[in-house]
Design goal:
80% of the residues lie in helices and 0% in strands. With 394 residues, the protein is mainly α. The protein folds into 2 domains: 6-190, Growth Hormone, Chain: A, CATH 1.20.1250.20; 212-390, Growth Hormone, Chain: A (Up-down Bundle), CATH 1.20.1250. The longest helix is centred in the last third of the chain and has 51 residues, at 340-390. The radius of gyration is 21 Å and the shape is globular.
Length: 394
């Protein structure tokens, strides 16, 4: 292939950057709200019952998010357009977000947050499928690198809106909604992707390769196994650190968590560039799954806090690279573009189902075997993901 012809067979950098900005806006739409703003509001309203309230809200929200992502992805497939759904979801989710502010009763919070999940996934489901419509396989790794910026930006947004004196509780929700709109609207207004008809044609899978259904199943299971580990550590890492040292504060944990996200960005970009250059899209996923397992083993056997933190950094950074690259490379294995949005909705279950599984795993293992027992089981799950992907051919 000549160097002159290659740019015409690649999506424009302008659209990729606008899309990455919109994807970051999607993260900003939920990360500050679910991790900081909603827990603070619930704590003020519920007092000692705050943990129970948050559990109910998280459980019901995960169910509504799962249904909405599949449903709205399928509707955007049928409609043959993504922009209209993204725009409608942006308006609805931002409107519902700011309406949470004055609510102090659990039933109303459940209702509004569930409706907000519908609006949020009305935006996120077609936004995810839009990349599959526009980004060719030779740029999937680059896309994954750009998507890795979103979690870090989401965490930064949470830090920004909670700066003391910047905004009150209700004003913070308005500020988040404004930032989300500023991130998503440029892609809707100015995004003009080059068309790639081959991305909209059903793929013919050679007889020598794994069947399409097998590849999709392998990618789904591998992500689910890694996401279970991610969900467990996201919820309980502070408690684990404190079990090793009472001097660990929530601020220390936040710093470590932010460090993981920011170290993951350049490594994900490098992994994506390598995968595109060598046309080996699954290899970074294979090695990241292995490194996730190694990090969990170090955590399980760590005798001191510094070693525990080192193990968590290894686990967290590898997990960040894995999830971002997996999101992009999943678009490669979906065989039918006419159901791309719906199929990505089923992949989104790997993000919501772990939140339903993880509490029961923790309650069953930690009281009996301690956190080491939990981490050994999670390392086993990551190792299974490694072998599933190692034997996969694309």
């Amino acid at each position: 292939m000549s160097h002159e012809a290659e740019p015409q067979q690649r999506q424009s950098k302008t659209f990729l950057y606008l899309y990455a900005l919109a994807w970051a806006g999607g993260a900003i739409a939920y990360v500050p709200f679910l991790t900081v703003l909603l827990p603070v509001q619930v704590a003020d309203a519920a007092g000692d019952a705050a943990v129970d309230w948050l559990a109910y809200i998280a459980f019901v929200g995960a169910i509504f998010a799962s249904i909405a992502h599949i449903g709205f992805g399928w509707l955007s497939d049928k409609a043959g357009t993504r922009r209209v759904f993204v725009a409608a979801g942006l308006i609805l989710s931002c409107t519902l977000l700011v309406s949470v502010g004055p609510v102090t009763e659990l039933p109303m919070l459940l209702l509004i947050v569930s409706a907000w999940q519908f609006g949020l996934n009305l935006m996120l489901a077609p936004l995810a499928a839009w990349a599959g419509d526009c980004v060719p396989d030779r740029q999937k790794g680059q896309l994954g690198g750009l998507l890795s910026i979103a979690p870090a930006v989401g965490a930064m947004a949470g830090t920004f809106v909670t700066i003391p004196g910047l905004a009150s509780g209700a004003e913070r929700l308005w500020l988040v909604a404004l930032i989300v709109a500023l991130c998503v609207l440029p892609a809707l207004v100015f995004g003009r992707p080059r068309p790639f008809p081959d991305l909209m044609a059903e793929r013919v899978i050679p007889q020598t390769d794994d069947p399409a259904t097998s590849r999709v199943a392998r990618m789904w299971i591998a992500r689910l196994l890694v996401q279970i580990a991610e969900a467990a550590l996201f919820a309980y890492v502070l408690l684990w650190f404190r079990s090793m040292s009472e001097n660990v504060t929530d601020n220390h944990t936040a710093i470590i968590f932010s460090l993981v996200l920011f170290l993951g960005v350049p490594l994900t970009i490098f992994a994506g560039h390598w995968a595109d250059r060598h046309q080996k899209p699954i290899i970074p996923l294979v090695w990241c799954a292995a490194i996730v397992a190694v990090g969990l083993l170090i955590m399980a056997m760590s005798p001191t806090l510094p070693i525990a933190i080192a193990g968590y950094l290894i686990f967290g950074v590898a997990g960040t690279v894995f999830l971002s690259q997996h999101t992009a490379q999943t678009l490669r294995v979906l065989p039918n573009p006419k159901t791309r949005g719906r199929d990505l909705g089923f992949f989104n279950l790997t993000n919501t189902v772990p939140s339903l599984i993880m509490p029961w795993l923790t309650l069953a293992l930690v009281p009996v075997f301690g956190f080491s027992g939990l981490f050994l089981l999670l390392a086993l799950l990551a190792s299974i993901a490694f072998f599933i992907l190692l034997t996969m051919r694309v």
